[in-house]
Amino acid sequence: MENGRRHFRHTSICLLGAAAFFFIYLNWDWKWVSSLTPPLSSAAAGPQGEDPGPYHVAYPKNYKYIMDDTPTCNTKTPFLVLMVHIATGDVAARDTIRKTWGSEKLVLGRPVETLFVLGLPGGPDAERQQEELKQENLQHHDLVQSNFQDSYHNLTIKTMMMLEWLAAHCSKASYVMKIDSDVLLHVHNVVQLLLDPSTAKLNYLTGLVWWHSPVLRNPFNKFYMPRNVVAEAEYPPYPLGMAYIMSLDLPAKILAVSPRIKPIFIEDAYLGMCMQRLGIPPTDPPEKTMFIVDPEHPLSRCSLSKVIAVTTTSILQMRSYWERSRQPDAGC
């Protein structure tokens, strides 16, 4: 009997201890986790070599454009500029986009241009990759490259350098669309939306808008953000980074307020923080099905006829969907 009581007390203590540990886990700020994050390389930290830490990025810095000889917004004034964020070594994706939706230059009577945004290659063969990029650009003149290290952690830098380039070169264009390289774009539907009389010409930002997106406090999640970096429980509303459209008055406005907000590595959330500072909320698209981040493949012809941007799983799938979307009977 006494053994039974001791076993019961031991079990109760263990359960109470586990509950207490779980409560602490949920409410602890986990500030020590940042010390476990490996430091960024000096290349990732920026031209001056400062380490911004695991949650911020090295922006603004003295970055320069080392390739941007495109005629887009120089000798041409497009209605819509498509800016594809892509890894330096992803030549196959660039060539596929050039041959599919990136080849569409005149849509519903409006000129459209496609450019690729990238930073510096890394790794032991970085010099060879850079030389290949130069040769690729000599052929296509569609690369906009800056001298920050191209990496997942530096996507906010890539976004801000894109906005800097647009503000400096494309103020006479009407709209810009940022697209990830694995996204199929239905360019006709984009232009059709932008020509709609109800679509704003200024202060316009749309895409798959995330409202009330929680700031994740789980230190084992790759999007973890401690309270000492972002104190709020939710991020301001922002369009998901897979694809979003903005009117071309916004790049300069965002750049004007960005020095007041220390940039975090989650680039679309940071864009939402800048928009909140401007007092300009994003706009939901007319239909949620226009932007699909996690589709159930294969997509039907009806879905393809309505979509603006959808994430694909391969180059072959992107090519197949693009060809199907152009068929006369691709509607519902």
UniProtKB/TrEMBL annotation:
Keywords: Glycoprotein, Glycosyltransferase, Golgi apparatus, Lipid metabolism, Membrane, Signal-anchor, Transferase, Transmembrane, Transmembrane helix. Its EC number is 2.4.1.-. Belongs to the glycosyltransferase 31 family. Signal peptide: none annotated. The chain crosses the membrane at residues 12-28. One of its GO terms (cellular component) is Golgi membrane. It is a single-pass type II membrane protein. The gene is LOC117730861. It is found in: Golgi apparatus membrane. It comes from Cyclopterus lumpus. This is Hexosyltransferase. One of its GO terms (biological process) is protein O-linked glycosylation. The keyword Transmembrane applies. Pathway: Protein modification; protein glycosylation. Its main location: Golgi. The lineage of its organism: Eukaryota, Metazoa, Chordata, Craniata, Vertebrata. InterPro entries: Glyco_trans_31 (IPR002659). GO terms for molecular function: N-acetyl-beta-D-glucosaminide beta-(1,3)-galactosyltransferase activity. The keyword DNA damage does not apply.
